[in-house]
Write a structure and sequence with these properties.
Distance between the termini: 57 Å
Strand content: under 5%
Strand order of the largest sheet: 1-4-5
Number of helices: 20
Structural class: mainly alpha
Order of helices and strands: EHHHEHHHHHEHHHHEEHHHHHHHH
Number of domains: 1
């Protein structure tokens, strides 16, 4: 996809992102694809249908990325965010993932689900969107009249020193075969895909659920499609083909003026779907007066997903206005949204950003984050469940210890409450 001007290439980049996002939003709404719901089904009902749909999205995206990269059609080494960076921020992956998992449980869904619910008429999710966006924005941007961010105030001094700088990229293929990771990435990607598909489709109930199959495949393909388009848009100038970020870096040499120049170069790197940072970008875009230089892949994807969900809610006649049950419900959602904004930024992604997009690159940090998110969410659900069932008898400590026993992280002898 070669264009004769940067403006044309950027326009195509945004329009292709928008179209894929609309499809993504419509399919997620139709199939009720929900990562928090998947964890809830698993924890509370021993139902793995939506977990399998999530794994199918991962398998589809991983297969596509592994094959496309081996064929030289994409390169996901230098992406935004840097999934395969040579610095393994495992502590941030773990802590951020757990915080995000807790947050999405209190907020009744992850960032992507909030966008889907906005499109379906859920006013609660508008408040979640706003709180999540503000928290995510100030994790990486300084407060007004200050040089401090949430990250620098609360996390940098003690988390940053824990990062490990590797001699190679952090994806599993490079860690196994640093000198020539190309083949390793393909082999590992195919093995992972085959293993996941075997587990997913061995369940007869899942094979009969067309929505779960459709959701998993289309969402995985949407992630792969975004990887492909963001890798293959080029600008021809002075008889040389430049990627968007390469053109940006040579802007003074190639462009006549700064008209149409994006505010930040890294947002032009190859990328795919993630939703915490883009929701934060949306807040920044609104705060700065709708500055066109702040329009990014992420910003476009946010509006595309909302529109896709809205369109499907109209087609299916499922559009419903929803409001908070009471003030406690409001507080829970706001707390959850803030935790998602902080945790998702800290971990470099969410259930989609790290759990599907990041994992498709086989990045070690993405796997760590995915496990941490599921753990944080599952633990929170169990604690909530025990406190609801036992009411005054179940203190937080008792519910917490019992939840860890249920998750086989503590011995059965430490159980504080009878199993339910």
């Amino acid at each position: 996809m070669v264009f004769e001007s940067f403006a044309e290439s950027l326009s195509f980049f945004f329009w292709s992102t928008f179209i894929i996002s609309v499809i993504l939003g419509a399919v997620v709404n139709k199939t009720n694809f929900c990562t928090m719901g998947a964890v809830s089904d698993m924890v509370n009902m021993n139902d793995y249908g939506r977990i399998r749909a999530w794994l199918l999205a991962i398998a589809t995206a991983t297969f596509c990325v592994s094959v496309l990269e081996y064929m030289g059609m994409i390169n996901v080494d230098d992406t935004f965010p840097p999934y395969r960076g040579d610095q393994l921020i495992y502590a941030e992956n773990i802590l951020g993932g757990i915080i995000f998992g807790i947050g999405m449980t209190f907020a009744s869904g992850c960032g992507n689900k909030s966008l889907i619910r906005i499109g379906g008429g859920n006013i609660k999710s508008v408040f979640v969107f706003a709180a999540l966006g503000i928290a995510a924005y100030y994790m990486t941007n300084p407060f007004p009249d200050s040089d401090k961010t949430l990250y620098s105030l609360f996390f940098y001094d003690w988390l940053n020193p824990l990062a490990i700088t590797l001699d190679t990229k952090q994806d599993i293929g490079a860690l196994i075969s640093g000198d020539d990771p190309t083949t390793s990435r393909l082999v590992l990607g195919l093995i992972a895909t085959a293993g996941l598909l075997f587990y997913i489709f061995k369940a007869a109930e899942f094979r009969q659920n067309k929505d779960n199959i459709l959701g998993g495949i289309i969402i995985g393909l949407a992630v792969a499609a975004a990887w492909y388009t963001s890798n293959n848009i080029t600008v021809i100038a002075d008889e040389t083909n430049y990627s968007l970020v390469e053109y940006y870096e040579e802007w003074d040499m190639l462009a006549d003026d700064d008209t149409g120049k994006p505010a930040v170069a890294r947002t032009l790197n190859p990328q795919s779907f993630t939703f915490v940072n883009p929701i934060g970008q949306t807040y920044g875009y609104i705060k700065d007066g709708f500055d066109s230089s702040l329009i990014t892949f992420g910003l476009i994807s946010v509006f595309g997903v909302v529109l896709g969900s809205f369109l499907w809610s109209l087609i299916s006649r499922s559009f419903r206005i929803e409001w908070f049950v009471d003030f406690k419900d409001f507080l829970n959602h706001m707390m959850g949204a803030i935790l998602m904004g902080i945790g998702g930024t800290l971990a470099l992604g969410c259930t989609v950003g790290q759990g599907i997009t990041g994992v498709s690159t086989l990045a070690l940090g993405s796997f760590i984050t995915l496990i941490a998110i599921v753990f944080g969410s599952a633990l929170t659900m169990k604690i909530q469940y025990y406190r609801i069932v036992y009411e005054d008898e179940a203190s937080f400590v008792k519910a917490f210890i019992t939840a860890l026993v249920d998750m086989r992280l503590l011995p059965a002898s430490m159980r504080q409450l009878d199993a339910i």
